[in-house]
Design brief:
Blueprint (H helix, E strand, L loop, with lengths): L1 E3 L4 H10 L5 E3 L49
Parallel strand pairs: 1-2
Length: about 80
């Protein structure tokens, strides 16, 4: 988590983009609410996102299956 304090909006956006932080607040400090993803980068944090729909990703694995359901016996 990082915070930027400035009266210049363009500087705030430039700084927020440059920071390697999961959450960046501007002219404030806080984690947001339950709908706001929260988590660190690299070795900071626990390796996932907490809160929001993104928290689900750390408890599941995505797997794709492709099945050929063509009926070859009909030929």
């Amino acid at each position: 988590m990082a915070s930027i304090f400035t009266s210049h909006a363009k500087r705030a956006m430039r700084g927020a983009r440059a920071l390697k932080a999961g959450t960046v607040t501007v002219n404030s400090f806080g984690e947001g609410d339950i709908t706001t993803p929260f988590g660190g980068y690299k070795q900071s944090g626990f390796g996932g996102r907490d809160n929001s729909v993104h928290a689900h990703d750390q408890y599941t694995r995505l797997k794709t299956f492709w099945f050929d359901l063509a009926d070859d016996s009909a030929q």
